[in-house]
Amino acid sequence: MSVAILIRTTCTRCGQQKAPADFDASKNAVSGRRSVCKVCKADLARAYAATDTGRAVNVRAKAKYRSTEHGRVHELAHHRAYRQTPAGREAFRRAEKKRDPVKVSARKQVQYAVRSGRLERQPCSVCQALGAHGHHEDYGRPLEVTWLCTGCHARLHREARRAC
User: What angle in degrees, to the nearest 10, is found between the helix axes of 101-116 and 86-99?
Assistant: First the structure.
């Protein structure tokens, strides 16, 4: 018959006795465990993150992570997922409105003109596909649009970006 020995360790911050599993591992400590329990360590980390120094360190760490390939891929996936949520769509709409109000106004004028019947939605001017989008060459003339399907519209913008 074996006897189990219950080993308890005292946290140096809160003073409570806890099981060794409640402490992170440490190569430097004689016991092989940190002297502060996981709960206290999390509280300390939260308090530090709320300070100006902690925020600055966090900003630098995020920037460093985003500069790596893995960080860029992760950030892009996160943004795409967020844009699919109602909150993400609303945030993007607000940001776009603030960034380029003339463009937003031109799009709204086309939407209203199509709804009211002053402007008729046409098939794609390149491939004749239905369900085309209105493309503005000049946002100063909001009702002068070229009707392009999603694929042709994307191709036009890719070619314009390459030309720059």
Answer: 110
pLDDT band of residue 25 (cuts 50, 70, 90) is very high
Q: Where are the domains of the chain?
A: 9-48, 57-97, 101-163
Asked whether the whole model's pTM tops 0.85, one would answer: no
User: Which tokens is 43 given?
Assistant: 């509280």
CA distance 70 to 76: 10
Tokens of 115: 């709804």
CA-CA distance, 46 to 38, in Å (whole number)? 12
Alpha carbon 112 to its chain centroid, in Å, reads 31
- Tell the burial category of 106 from Cβ atoms under 10 Å away from its Cβ (0-12, 13-18, 19+): buried
- Between CA 67 and CA 96 the distance in angstroms is 25
Q: What is the DSSP-derived secondary structure letter of residue 20? A: G
Instruction: Tell me if 146 sits within 8 A of 125, measured CB to CB.
Output: yes
